[in-house]
Structure formats: C-alpha cells, structure tokens
Amino acid sequence: MFVSIVSYGLAVGAVYALIGITYNVMFSASRVFSFTAGMLGMLGGVLGALFINKMGMNAVLAFMLVLACGAAMGIVTEILTVRPVLKSIEQHLYVLSTLAFALMIQQVTAIEYNTEPQPFPVLFPIDPNSWLGIVDQKFWLPVLACIVTILGLEFLYRRTLIGRAFLAIAEDSYAARALGLPETRLRMASYAIAGVIGALAGFTGAQMLLAFIGNQAILNFYGFVPVALGGMGSNRGAVIGGIALGLFQQAANFLVGGIFASVAVFAVFIVVLLLRPEGLAGAATARRV
Amino acid sequence: MTDAASPITTAKAPAGLLGRLEGSWSWIALGLVGLLLPLLDDSYFGVIAQRAYIYWILSAGLNLVVGYAGQIAIGWVAMLTLGAYTTAALAAGRVGGVEWHPYLALIAGGAMGAVFGVIVGLPALRLRTFYFAMTTLGFATIVTQVALAWKDVTGGGVGTPGPVFPWPFEPGWGFYYFCFILAALATWITANIGSSRYGRALVAIRDAEVAAEASGIAKPKLLILVFLLAGGLGGIAGGLFSSLQSYITPDAFTFEMSVLFFIGILIGGRGSILGPLLGTIILTVLPEFAAPLVQWSTFLYAALLLVIVLVIPGGIADLLDYKNRRPLEQHREIVPRPELLSRVLDANGEPSAIRLTGIALHFGGVRAIDGLDLEIRSGEVHGLIGPNGSGKTTTLNVISGYYRPNTGTMKLNSADLPFDKPHARAHYRIARTFQTPRLVGAASVLENVMIGGTVRGHGTFAESMLSLPRHHRDEKQLKDAAMQALATVGLESLANARADRLQHSELRFMEIARGLMLRPAFLLLDEPAAGLSAEEIRRLGALIKAISREGTGVLLVEHHADLIFDICDRVTVLNLGKVLAAGTPAEIRSHREVVSAYLGA
Amino acid sequence: MPTSAPRSRTHEPLLQVSGLSAGYGKIGVLSGVDLTIGAGEVVALLGPNGAGKSTLLKAISGLLPRTGRITFGGQDMSKADPGETVRAGLVHVVEGHRVFTQLSVIDNVMLAGYGLSREKRAVQVEEALAYFPDIAAKRNDRAVTLSGGQQQMLAVAQGLVRRPRLLMLDEPSAGLSPVLVDRVLAAVARLREGGTAVLLVEQLIEKALAAADRVYALARGSIVLEASTDEDDLPNRLERAYFGQDAHAPLES
C-alpha cells in the first residue's frame, strides 16, 4: 500500500506541480491568473487520446502535435482574453474572460469529443516483467515531465536572453518597456510556453487521470492550491506544494476515503489563505493608496 | 424605466406620481405577467416560470454579492445544493428520524444556506479576486462530492425525494404562486438594500475600496451581512428547487447552473436589479424555445460572458440607460459657493489638533518618513510640500490610517489616534481626498457624495431591507446633505450625471464634497490642484481657505507652490522623509535650502 | 518659438516636439509643449515638482499615450512605441534607477541590447560598461547587491548600449551622494564629446546648468522659459518662472 500511495501520490503531485507552473508562467508575464491552466491539462489528455486512439497517429507525432496545440491555445488565450483586459481599467475582469474562454473550450470538447472519461493509450511498449516495468509508466511519465520542465525553465531563465527578458518583465514591466523590450510579444511567448507545459501535464498524466473533460475543474483547483500556498510566481513553491498535495491526497484516499481528502484539502487551503493571504512563502502586499 | 433599471446608477427623478409611475412601469408589467400567467392554464409554461422564479430568488441575493459588491462568487450553486438537500432530507425524516413540516424544512434550508454563505464568503474579506473565485468553485465541487458520499442523508447517487408543500401552496398553481411571491419578496428586499446607503457602500467597496474605507465603511461587517442574505436566499431557492424537481440527485446541481446565475447577473448589468432579473429570465427561458441549441447552451452562455466582459462591461442596464447618453452641457464652470459652508460644516468653535511626534516609517530598507513632527490645527490650512518621494503622501496615509508607522505617536488633542484602521477615521470626522480621484464611475455624482456620509445614517441593515421609516429618514437626510455639499463646491447642476462623465477637475471638487459629508473636523487633501486650470486653482484655493475658516483643520499636500503660498497659514517642507523647514509661507519662501530642494530643479 | 530655427548655433535639429499633450487617464498634465534639441546638444529640463517633467519624457519615448507631433532625426515618431524610439536611437532612462534586481549586472546591460545581433550586442555592452568601471567590476553580481548610486549608473549604462543619438535622463542624481552625482554628470560630459545629445531632468540646479548648453523650464504642464545656460541671472529668472511671474518674458525667439 505504501508503494502505491507514494507512486500514485508523486505522479498526481507532479501533474499538479506542472499545472501550478502553468499558472506561474502566465502570471509572471502578465500579473494575471488564468482559468485556462486546468483547461490546458484537460486538453493534453483529450487531444492525445483523440490523436492516437481515434486517428491512429504515432505516439511521438501525437505528442508533438498536442504540445503545439497547447502553445496555440496559450497564444489565443493571451490575444483573446488577456490583452484586451490589461488595457481596460478594471483589470480583474481577467477572472471572467479567462473563465469564459476555458468554459467554451470545455463545452466544445464535451460536445465534439465525449463527456465520459476515455482511456488513454499506453505510450511505450514496455514489458511489465522487465526491469523497466517495475514502476508503471503512468507513474513515472508525469514525474519525468515535471523534471524536464523544471530543467528546461532553469535553462531558459538562466542561460538565454529571452528567458532573462521574461524575468525582467515579471519584475518590472514598466522598466522593461522603457528599455524597448517587446512586452506584448514576450507575454505572448510566455503564454505559449505555459500552453506547452499545461498540455504536457495533461498528456503525461492521462494514463492515470484518463482523457476526461472533468479534469479541467479538478486540475484548475488542485493546480492552484500549491501556487496559492507556495507563493504566486514561485515555481519551487509550486513543485514542493504540488508533490506534497499529491502525496497527502493519496494517503488520505487510502486511509480515510476520498471525500475526507477533498474536504481536508479545501479546509487547509481556506484556513491557510485566511491566515496568510500571500501564501506560506509569499511576500507582503503592494501599496494601495 | 431607467430609474428602475438601475436604482444605483441614476438618482430618483423628482417625485410626483407620474414620475414614479414612469420609473416602475416595467415592474408593474412584470408583476402582472407573473400574476396572470396561470390564466393560460399551461402547465409547461408554469414549470418554466417556476424555475425562473427559483433561479431568480438565488440570483437576487447573488446579485448583491456579484453585481453590487463586485465579489466574483462563481460557485454559488452550492447554496442551492445545500438548501435543496437540507429541505428534502429534513422533510423526508432522513435526519434524526423525525419528518419535519415542509415549510419548517424550507426555513431550515434557508438557514443552512445563510450559514454557509458566510463561511464561503469569509475569504472574500482577505483574498484577491481570483483566489476568492477559486474558493467558491472549490466549495461547490466539495458540496457535490459530499452529497454523493453521504448516502444516509442525501441518498448518494440514487438521490432523495423532494418535499411536497401542503395547502395553501400545494403542487400546481399553488406552488407557482409560492415561488412567485417569494421571488417578488426577494426582488423587493434586494432592491431596498440596493438603493440604500448599504447598497451604495457595497458599490463603493467594489469600485473605490479605499474611498469606501475613508468614508468609514467597514467592509467585513457589511459583506458578512450580504453573504448571509445571499446564502439564505440561495438556500430557500434550493428548498423550492427540490420540491419542483420532486426528486434530487447530485447531478441536478451542475457547475453550468452556477455559470448561468453568474452570467445572468453580468448580462443584466452590475449594480442593477431589473437588468439581472431580465438576464436570469432570458437565460432560463431561452433554451426551452431553442431546443436544437440546448446542448450548446453553456457554450453560448460562456461566449456571451466573454463578449460582455470585452465589449459591454455595463450589461443590459447600461444599454437601457438612455438618460446618460444625453450630452452634458459643453462649457461648464465650477463656481463654488463658500458662503454655504456654514450650513455644511459644524462650527463648534472648540480648537483641536492632530499632533504627530517622531513618526518614522520604513518600507523594507527605504525610509519613507524619518522622524517627522507635524501639527494640524483646527481653523488653519497647513501646507505640506517637498520633492517627489519626500514622504508627503505617505504622511497623509499615516494620518488617515492606511500605514502603520514603525515608531512615533499620533494624537488627536490629548487622546491617541489609533494607527491602521482607515475606516475608523470617519468617526473622528477626519476626511480625505485622493491623488487620483476614487469614485464609483457608474453611480451619479449625488450618490458618490452620499457615500461620504454613510456613517451618519442610523437605520440598520434589516430596517433598510424592509424599507422601514428610519431608512427613509436616513435617505432624505443624506440626500439633502449631499445636495448642499454639491452646491457648496459648485457641482449641483451635475448631481444626477454619471460620475464617470465628469471632467477631471470636477471630480476633484466632487471628492471634496464627499469629504464634507462627514462634517469634517479635519480634511486631508492630496494634491487637489493637480490637473486644474489656473482659474480653477484660484477657486479651489478660496474654497479650501473658507473651509478652514469654518473651524476645520486642513492638511494640503500640493505641488503648486503658488497655491500653497497663497492660502496656507503654515507650511512644512519635507525632504527625504524629514522636515526641512516649517513656518509661515513668507518664512518658507525666503528659506534658501527650501528654494534649492523644493523648487530644486 | 517653434517656427524659428533652434537657438543652438552649431546643432542640427535632432528632436523636434510640437504641440505635445499627455496625461494619465483624465488627468491632463502637459498641454501643448514645444521643444527642440539639436544633435550633440546637452539640454537641461528644469521645473518644480509636479510640473510634468517626467511625463514629458515618457510622452516623448512613447511610454505614455500622447497627442502632438514628435520628429526624431527626420523620422516621424508621434505614434511610436518605446521599442521603436529605442531602435531609432532615442533612449529614455527612467527615474528611480529601476534596474532588474534579481538579474546580474551583465544581464541587465545585455537586456538593453535585446534584439541586436549577438556580436554587436557583446561589443556595445562592453562599450557601455567602459563608462562605469565600478559597475563593470561587479558584472556577475546580482543588481540587488548594488548601492543606489551603482544602480543608477547601471541604469545609465543600460541606456548607453543602444549607442543613442539622444539620451533622456530622468533625475539621475536622485538619492545619490555628491561624489556619485559628479560621476554620473561626468559621463554626460563624455557623451557630449562623443556627439550624443542629452536631455537631462535634474533636481540640482547648479549642477544641471553647469552640464548643459541650454535649458528649458516647465511649469504647470507648459514650457515657461527657454534660455542658453550662459545667460545672466538664470537662477532668479527660473524661480520667477516657476511661480508664474516670468511666464512671458524669456520666450524671445
């Protein structure tokens, strides 16, 4: 039982962490939390199942195509729901515009694909009796995706100029604009990256979570919990929080039942935020007057 | 029509039966349709109408939360679920083995909704919009999961039968009238709140939170009352819903319903009652008549939401608001009438003073204020000047309670003036204006000014809800006082215009009028002359001076040196958070260091 | 004034601004500002607080929406965004030494060359750093470890990476010790020798007048005085202009 709690918990936790990073990448570039994070995760699974199972595509090609769709979704999100709102006076309207867009995509998926969970194909033909099969790929795939994403982002932010430009905009977008950095294009690029990461989370987690439109709401919430608790914009917080959340949830599932786990997560989330609205590791709020 | 459509966005037209009729004909028409619908004797229409009433009972409460207070509570369907299961389970005797009378069970459902309305609402007091939206969504998910799992009470996935209400509201047209009456009641109650000082305070929290605080509006208390009411209405709607469905399962309470409620309100327009009512009816009824589109309905709602957010954030109510599309007079002049001040202010003659001693405030490593002494005396204009970043506005924010200094004391006469607590300043009659005018753009100028007097009302929330006499007295008194304040600053002709149609300079005077509503003992002005023409500055100066001569102590933070030297009795010059010089204008003008630091350049 | 040739005898007009108005939302700050800067000229922009100096710089560099006409090096820049003005060689160093504190010094400077080819960027980054040896020595430290004065130098260095034809400096001396102020202003002098024009917003009036060829004074959102720095009695005339008593006198053209 312990092994299955840990393997399942780590895997789910890695998916939550990736969705958390998706939130963060969008937030850093625009100061906007977008409801499309869960949608990207949902689409990763649904599109993967659609391409491989229904269209008979090769897994590698399908994978590339899913990531490309994620990037495209990210760009559309930026153009359609974020850019117009950033220009308006009431910037918190982004909550509604991103929610509306995510709902539209979810409904199209429900109608054109399926409202019930669909199986997701096994990606690698690994003999379960060989040493490679000791841990099922549905468990190590999301963890691997999470590690690759973190290393990739580290490389991007530390080794490339465009990555530093992202950091610059996140820290002080006004100064970045004054330097002549192309703010809009950089913001669009971060939304594309977020799209890729979200779709990656959904694709690699789908053998476990299935291709299911209901994953949208679940990933939206459980992907946001580590961000809120770990401090917004902090990828380290998202990873630690996501893994911890996954492990806790699975342990509670096995020991006292799933409903208790959900209620407990929700209660902890609310209580922590009421006590420390900036998160466990966040900084104080900005000036208002 | 406009009056009814947006009680908060337009002041009531001058009374007179005809005027009142014109304002309420849409309500009368809606009421007649509802009353006479049973004459059609078509039970299909009846069921659709009952569903619309039930949804509206919930949405009426939610409208105060979303449309007025601007809190993005998306998962409010949870209240419907809670009310439905509470009513159904109690009436069926699933709890404690006793079968409750259906009407009592319905009341219990409302109470359950009210309690959880507050619990779900609590995070709104501290969290940013997105966080709050997320918590309400999370709560809705949890409630459905619990309903699925708690089989003893809810019947789990199999479900539980809803209650059947006995005479006089037995199933059929009896139940129809029950829903109709409750919907009418919900409309009346929320409309009363919407047009009271509480409704204006909610809108102020939404659009101008810091100004609401400065006017003494205690956000937590007010929001809790509103969440209580909205939760209760949601719970009652749930109880009715369980009876209408006759059998409820967790599947009946979808997230799409939440979206429907929410979008109905936004389509209708924020800060309106009639708009959201029409929005809810349209969204409930439309899918019935467009059967092929039913599976696309949620998609269309979502698309509609996106269009509304991006294109007409004001909703239907704004489209109906033809009155505010009439052009305002082009060449307007603000002519204050300081001679009216004696009626607006209390000249109680007792001299008092705010004294700051040794105030220091650091933001991280930056010393914003570094050991400041300052005294603002009643009857004087005290100028506070200095270069950018010298700590002027920070000082003003310390006095008005937005910042807590690291060290130092602040006294009003001999008593301590508490740090923090900006909303407590109104009770000390300390008013302020803001560098960037903070206003409710969609409300009239008059209503904006009335917000300033919120703490002077006496009626309770419940009294306003039920439109009792004290509520009417408050309204009349606040309105009279606001008209007087507007006349004093020279804006009375614009009292009924939407505030966001005013010019910048007019907004500055409007903020002063809002401050005057507190009959302030002290008035703190943050760069009131910025963006004004030379002539307007002259008039502003005369007005400020006259205010001080009525006994009010004025603190004037300003860049315009000419205004400062013109009207101030004393001037303090700040540099790098310290007092560089203090004295009369003449002394300051001849101060070499000041000339180089402040005039600097 | 705007119709006549610029006062500077030896300078070709580089930046010409006419009828410029700008503000924040409904708050109009500038109304109808006219201003000319010649190639290689150092111009000080003075004025009391709140007069609109920073707003004017932001309006010219495209950080704020504005109306009016802006020509730079013969190109129409009335609608240009900051990216375009920077590429044209009109660089604005904003006030408050807003460098990116989480990035290293060298990364801060490199970002200013975003969009240049790798080789070109490397060369120009070194050129810019050469102006400030203290900063260059700390190239691998994070900017958060720098003092306020060093951050200001870093901000100016960022502004130099593009080899600007006109550098607009907004209060480069704010919060700096006198020694550091002199060092920043020394950089301005060297820029002039190299043929770069500078528009300098400065609190320290004597230092600004010493560094500049010409001066504009802004009060209440309009230019109230324009003079060459070698004219007599300038400080007193400036003071009178701020208080609105000298509004008409010096605009002879």
Question: What number is the mean pLDDT of chain A?
Answer: 89
Average of pLDDT of chain C: 85
In the CATH hierarchy, the third-tier topology of chain A is known as ABC transporter involved in vitamin B12 uptake, BtuC
Order of helices and strands of chain A: HHHHHHHHHHH
- Rg of chain C over CA atoms, rounded to whole Å, is 18 Å
The greatest inter-chain interface is formed by: A-B, 40 and 44 residues
What spatial form of chain C do the alpha-carbon principal axes imply?
globular
Spatial strand order of the main sheet of chain C: 6-7-8-3-9-10
Number of helices of chain A: 11
Please give the radius of gyration of chain A in angstroms: 19 Å
Q: Which range does the strand content of chain C fall in? A: 25-35%
Uncertain segments of chain A of ≥5 residues (pLDDT<50)?
A: 284-289
The name of the CATH superfamily of the domain at 13-91 and 155-242 in chain C reads: P-loop containing nucleotide triphosphate hydrolases
What CATH first level of chain A would be assigned?
Answer: Mainly Alpha
Stated plainly, the CATH topology of the domain at 13-91 and 155-242 in chain C is called Rossmann fold
Q: Largest sheet of chain C at a glance?
A: 6 strands, mixed
> Could you estimate the helical fraction of the residues of chain C in percent?
25-40%
Helical residue percent band of chain A: over 70%
